[in-house]
Amino acid sequence: MNSSIPLSRMLYGCRISDFAEKSDGNEADRTAEGFARMFGSYFPPELSITEGNAWTSTLNNSVQYVSVIRPGEEVAKLVKRIHYVSFVGMFRSDLFEGLCVGHAPKKCKICGKWFLTTNARHTKYCGGYAPGDKLHRTCRQIGNLKGREQRELADDHPLKQIYEKRLNTINRYVKRGTLDADLAEIMKKLAKDKMLRALSNVAYAKGTYEKEMEQAALKKEALKRI
């Protein structure tokens, strides 16, 4: 028995695992060209078929080219049929065929499982059910909510900018002595409450939020609170 075969299989397993991890972290260039460059660094073309460690080759299959008419089409097309001897070989070939056109594995940031991306989009979450979620939402649904939370926490969020602008105006009026300090504190509290409400209520944010945050409107409402 050739003792190098188990060793070469182990080497292949390590390389393909490392390649998958590298592709998962490659947010800059998730394209067919980008994957090709990475693939070449892990599986150089110098590895020949006769060396026994060229596990990127798929010798355990037969290829047949036939002319067929696909369902729903009228014109015949030449297609390639591949018959595999090994179940593992089929999956290996399918992975490599996908990489050629930019399909690549990605590890879900929520459940940790691997899934396949089919375009260059920087998808972070799979479509499976999120573990432990009582509402039975998918990882993608949970991820979208996380993305929204991050956008809302950003300092340059439009709703926050309105709030910050109003705070600056209130502080400027107090400094000039044209606005009572106690009244200003009530106005600030009202402004913050309205900003938080706008972040969680899209209808309010698109409706009266900006008008209610105007200086005169806040002062009028604050006077009613005193």
What would a concise description of this structure say?
The protein has 226 residues and is mainly alpha-helical. Helices cover 54% and strands 11% of the residues.
Could you characterize the architecture of this molecule?
The protein has nine helices and four strands. Helix 1 (4-25) runs antiparallel to helix 2, helix 5 (158-176) runs antiparallel to helix 6 and helix 6 (181-200) packs across helix 9 (215-225). A hairpin with an 8-residue loop joins strand 1 (61-68) and strand 2. It is mainly alpha-helical and 226 residues long. It has a domain at 154-225. A two-stranded antiparallel sheet has the order 1-2. The chain has a two-stranded antiparallel sheet with strand order 3-4. This is DUF6076 domain-containing protein. It holds the Pfam family DUF6076.
Calculate the mean pLDDT score and round it.
Answer: 77
Largest sheet: 2 strands, antiparallel
Choose one word for the global shape. Answer: elongated
Cα-atom radius of gyration: 30 Å
Strand content: 5-15%
Low-confidence stretches: 1-8, 48-53
Count of beta strands: 4
The helicity comes to 40-55%
Contiguous helical run count: 9
Series of H and E elements: HHEEHEEHHHHHH
